[in-house]
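Exercise 7. Predict the structure of TLC domain-containing protein from Ovis aries.
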Amino acid sequence: MDTNTILVLSTCFASFFTFQIIFHIVSYWFSAKISPGFNNLNFKKKIEWNSRVVSTCHSLVVGVVGLYIFLFDEAGIADPLWGDTSLGKVNIAIASGYLISDLLILIWYWKVIGDKYFVMHHCTALYAYHFVLKDGVLVYIGNFRLLAELSSPFVNQRWFFEALKYPKFSKANVINGILMTAVFFIVRIASIPPFYSYMYSVFGTEAYVRLGFLIQFSWTATCVVLDVMNVMWMIKISKGCIKIISLLRQEKARKSLQNGKLD
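Solution. The predicted structure, encoded as tokens:
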């Protein structure tokens, strides 16, 4: 077993156990410290809360590292298909460890947080990442896809506010909702056209042919599956955002009317 394989496997295992510890131990202690309302949640809410704490931790790590690789990794920028970088593989290994950990939690607490779309998402991503880690290809592309995780902290924060019964029109809730919609659109939707444009531009090139049919097909198929889900989630988020804006306008109009009557 070569050094690179040992690094990847050890990182993946370390990631898995770290996120399990955060879910089962750290989140309970930390959440109770920073949010007194956590202790008032029922068992089911606490399970999902801890799951989302783990999700946020994972997203911040792989999202920030992925952004660094996207902007500054010379090997990947020079050759997105075959550019090899240890940091890129480590980041993919961290993400893989998290996905396996979260799958285990989803299955164990299926009646509480089970979601077939999350299972589909995790399995699709793991299938794609195993090529990156095993064959050392598309490392830069894989890390580019991880930029989508930068939206997860805002999605999770929205759920935290809801669990703590924050008013929908509170300043914190509204600001987070706007940021969630904007960041989700930028990293998951706006990135779709240039991504597939690049995929089309390398089609048939020598570097692309060297990938082999299985990796070529898997690259396209997994990205299409994930992006279809991203579009579905974006539609859902957009509907929620439009609903909140509409309610805010109604509330503003109602207050203006009341003020007018008082005058």
